[in-house]
Amino acid sequence: MVSRINTVAFEGIRARLVEVQCALSPGLPSFSIVGLPDKAVSEARERVRAALSAMSVALPPRKIVINLSPADIPKEGSHFDLPIAMALLAEAGILAREDIADVVALGELALDGTLLPVVGALPAALAAAEKDMSMFCPRDCGAEAAWIGATKVHAAPSLAAVLQHFTGQTPLDVAEPGKVTTDVTTKDLRDVKGQERAKRALEIAAAGRHHLLLVGPPGSGKSMLAARLPGILPPMLPAEALETSMIHSVSGLLDGGGISQDRPFRAPHHTASMAAIVGGGRGAKPGEISLAHNGVLFMDEFPEFSRQVLETLRQPLETGDVTVARANAHVRYPSRFLLIAAANPCKCGHLTDPNRACNRAPLCGEDYMQRISGPLLDRFDMRIEVPPVTFQDLDLPANGELSTTVAQRVTNARAIQAERYEGLSDVTTNADIEGKTLTEFASPDPDGRDTLLKASERFGLSARGYHRVLRVARTIADLAEAPNITRKHVAEALSFRLVSHRETVG
C-alpha cells in the first residue's frame, strides 16, 4: 500500500498541488526522497527522523521511499517536512490513510517536533480551497492562511499536536484570520513647508496612479514628499490586499499573523541589482517592483541606478506585470505600482544655483539626465521641478493642508474612477485607460482639444506623451468632480510635463 497526502510547490505566487507518496518495501533499512527535491527537501529525512524520535516513534526497519509527484517539477523549501512525516506515520499505521488523503499540509519540523513557520501559507490555502481540501500548517502561519475562508485551516504547534488531532485526543480548532494591522504614520503633508506645486502633483499622482518624476537640488524635499505619499493613498480593496499579500507571502514578508490593507511602500537603494529590482535569483523570486504591487515604488537618485535596471522598468510600467525568465523557471508576477522617481538636476545637484554650480554647467545637467533614456522618460505621466526651499519658508509655521484632507479628495476621485470603469477588466484607475476607453472617457471639450493640439505641436509631444496628458487631465477633472475635461484641466496637465527635457517619438 501507498499512503498519500498533499502539499504545494510554488511557481511565482501560484501554489501547485504536489502529492507526497510514501511506500515501505522489504530491503535494507533506508530513507530516500525522490521527485526532484532540492537540498532543503532532501534534508527533511534527518529532521523527520529526529522529530519522530522525540515523540518516541521509531522508523520502520524497512526501505522507505518518499515520492513527490509530479516528479518533473522542482521541489524547493523546508515546508515539505510536515507532509512527509504525516505520510510516513500513515504508512506505519499510526494515522489512517483515508484521513490524510484530502489534506494539504506544509511546515518545517524542528528536531524536537515543533512546527516552524514557512513562506507561502496564503497561496497554499488558496490551492487547498480550489480542491475543497482542509489544510494543516504551523501555528504562526494559521492567521495568514485563514484569510482564504473557503477552506478549514488547522494551525498546529507541533507534529505531536497534529497526531493528537487525528487520533481524537485533542482536536485542533479552526484558525481565525489575523486582524488587519494599520501602520499609524506621523508623516503629514503639512510638515512640508512650501512646495505647493509638488504637493499638488503628489495628489494627482495618488488619485490616478500616475508615475511622477521629481527633479530638484539636494535638500529641496523630494524624499520628504515621497515619504508622505502613503498617507494620502486610499487603503487597498480586499481583492488587492489578497493579491499583494500573496506576493509578500511567497517572499516571507508577512508577519504578525494578518493581512494589512495599507498599500506597500518600497524604496530600494540605487545600488540594488537587477534581480533585486525586477526579480530572479535562486527560485526566480519576486523583486521590488512586484513587492510594490498596488502600492508605491520610490526610486531616489534615479539616474544613479544602472542603465540595465532602468531599462527593465519599461515593460512593467506599461503592462503592469513582469515575467522572470531563468533556465529553470519562467514566472510571471503582477507589478502594477505607482513609480515616484527623484533626481538631482546634475551630478553635484547645484545646477540651478549659479554660486555653487560647476564650470561645466549646463552641459553637466544634460549629460546626467541623459542616463535616463528617452523612452523611459516618456513613460512618466508627470515631471516637475522641485525648487530649493528658501529660509523664509522654513521659518514660517506649518499652514498647508493636512494629509487627511488631501486623502479625502483622493478617495473621492478613486471612487469616481471605480464607478466609471466598473465591468472593465484590468482598468481601475485613469492611468490604465487606453484605446477606445481613453477616447470614450478622456476626450476634452473643443477648447481643451485645441489647447492640447497646439501644445503637442509646440513642444513635440510624442503619441505616448499626448495620451498621458489626457489621462492626467481626466484625473484633475475627477479631483474637481467635473464630468467633462475642460481647457483648464488640460492646461494644468500640460504644466506637469517637463518641457525643458526631451520628448521622444514613440
Overall SS class: alpha/beta
| Oligomeric organization of the protein chains | single chain
Shape: elongated
The percentage helix is 25-40%
Head-to-tail CA distance between termini: 64 Å
The description of the largest β-sheet is:
5 strands, parallel
In what order do the strands lie side by side in the largest sheet? 11-14-17-10-18
How does this model look, in words?
The chain has 506 residues and is of the alpha/beta class. It has 22 helices and 18 strands. The N and C termini lie far apart (64 Å).
Question: Which descriptors apply to this entry?
Answer:
single chain, four-stranded mixed beta sheet, alpha/beta, disordered C terminus, 506 residues, 37% helix, elongated, five-stranded parallel beta sheet, 18 strands
At a glance:
With 506 residues, the protein is α/β, with parallel strands linked by helices. The longest helix is centred in the last third of the chain and has 18 residues. The C terminus is likely disordered.
Strand-helix topology:
Blueprint: E1 2-11, E2 14-25, E3 30-34, H1 39-42, H2 44-54, E4 63-69, H3 81-91, H4 97-100, E5 103-105, E6 108-109, E7 115-116, H5 121-130, E8 134-138, H6 142-145, E9 153-156, H7 159-166, H8 196-208, E10 212-215, H9 222-227, H10 238-250, E11 265-266, H11 274-278, E12 279-280, E13 285-286, H12 288-291, E14 296-299, H13 307-312, H14 314-319, E15 321-326, E16 329-334, E17 338-343, H15 363-369, H16 374-377, E18 382-385, H17 391-395, H18 403-420, H19 435-441, H20 446-459, H21 463-479, H22 487-495
Parallel strand pairs: 3-4, 5-8, 8-9, 10-17, 10-18, 11-14, 14-17
Antiparallel strand pairs: 1-2, 2-4, 6-7, 12-13, 15-16
Helix pairs in contact: 2-3, 8-18, 8-21, 20-22, 21-22
